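Team,

Forwarding the record for the chain on the shared tracking sheet. I've put the sequence and predicted structure together so nobody has to dig through attachments.
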Amino acid sequence: MRLLRHLAALAPAVLIFTVAPTRAASAEPRPNVVLILADDLGYETLAANGGTSYRTPALDRLAAGGVRFTQCYAQPLCTPTRVQLMTGQSNVRNYINFGTMDPALTTFGHHFQRAGYRTGIAGKWQLGQDKKLPQTLGFHESYLWQHTRRPPRYANAGLEHNGEPLDFSHGEYGPDLVHGFVHDFITRHRDEPFLLYYPMMLTHAPYQPTPDSKDWDPKAIGEQVNQAEAHFGDMVEYMDRLVGKLVAHLESLKLRERTLIVFLGDNGTGRGTRSMFQGREFIGGKGTTTDAGMHVPLVVNWPGRVTAGRVCGDLVDTTDFLPTICEAAGLSVAATPVIDGRSFWPQLRGEKGRPHDWLYAWYSPRQNNDLSAREFAFTARHKLYRSGEFFDLAADPGEKTPLALASLTGESAAAAKTLRTALGQFADVRPAHLDALAAQNTEGKAAKKKARKDK
């Protein structure tokens, strides 16, 4: 009830950002799209993928009734992934630094707005502190954590609705508050097509009790860094339960048959977090460019439109989602100057499509004064870094022992040649002004940090 009162009070702010539809409604209702991005959730966590440490029944059901991908890759950290996901472009073209997104970029929000969709974003932001930035980047409505500030995100959270701060102190749980907005957004726009981007706060560390945990404390203030790793499992299962509630809500409004649901993780599980996966221990590698840092779950479901029960081994990365959801909704992106991703909508329909032969990554977290990037191309089996390091991922998934390029033969030699060509396609792509802007932002952040310390 408290959430609904806040939403009602802020309704005028929502209406300010309304745009007129760009095309007349067709005889067949246009599909809704719900894109869910879990935070720090690696491939090994879902039971459908072979994980045995956590119960994920809602996502397992979506996988059984849709398409589950076994080779989806994100960037190793959240901001780089979010920029790629929202723009369909590799980070080499547009990434500035951690916690920043260029307000001039075109996102899937813009594409859906121009087609007459209502667009909303709910969950974690971490892309810049300007109050109107979510609207600038294509979303009519926003309900976010870490927008203009960084309050607690779990027990007694601080959030922002269209940039206006909301602080909770009566035992509310941040992910539940965000989920309440998600349900409200869907209910209010059930009679018009909508795009809902849902970058969840779960399951990011510090691992905290959820309202379902035995040691949940509704009076908790702030987040305890040294909480038990066991709470990660609680957070995974609570995240899954929220996904199940979303599906049930769509069904209750009779929207499920015309709603595409896409679920993926934004990077690997938190570094050092241990899970059981396919009969062995798997250790999370967030922040690293290994499989443990980049391999994420991907499940897509749309009853009657997406093939049920299919497992797809095609290579997918986060540049592919903008063209995919646009094609699914019948939106053209032909006028967009550069999109690095490829739509995997045909594969969702049971067709061959045009899958990647390799994936490319440019990764530079830029959290301190380091403006360098790790740049590499890889297939499901082999990886080549711009620096010349080459790995056989089947034999060395942790990338401990690079192979000498001069000694390669057979399949490995052919793969190295292909990956050298792939890297060559991105040799002179990065705009020079981005590195200068990144350096300025880094200096500015350092100055602000020093000023806070001096106080």
